[in-house]
Amino acid sequence: MRNDSSPADAPGQDIDMLIATRLLALRQAQALSLAELAERSGVSKAMISKVERAQSSPTAVLLGRLAAGLGVPLAQLLTEEKEQPQRLRTRAEQEIWRDPKAGYLRRQVAERHAGGGVELVEVELPCSAQVDYPRWSGKPYRQCLWMLEGALRVDYGDERFELAPGDCLDFGVDRPLVFKALGRTACRYLLAASPE
User: Fold this and answer.
1) Fewer beta carbons within 10 Å, N or C terminal of the chain?
2) Residues 6 or more apart from 33 whose CB is under 8 A from it?
3) pTM of the entire structure?
């Protein structure tokens, strides 16, 4: 497993504040009240308010529910909005977020830009960790998962897949998803997401 530091791990970089700012901006852009987003996402108004005020460090499951309720990719809650995509994104410039509960580590390798394109995300899931995401309520998109290290189970609605290094799985966000690290070690995989 890689264990290198990143800008997001550095002192002074406040990922909770970035998430708070992005969540509020996305909710307001859709003219959604706290109650409306709570109904869409299954997250309480009180918790949404805490996240928007950076008073709570959200988990991957919570962020997944909020993104699904907003109908946006998870990356839109974890990265700053940029006018133009960068041609080169060095490893040091790739945003990292760690789930405070599960220890799940997410590196935004490449962002999808407004006109489309592919988003690349590297994920490290600790031994026995599990992350659940609801079905997305917004515009669906496809994902392709390439397994790099360890073993992973993916539940895609009623279908179950077990992946080993080198395996590749194609799926959407039109069904609930569960990612579970299997075996005695953490696992690492690359997700490529693109519009349907």
Assistant:
1) C
2) none
3) 0.76
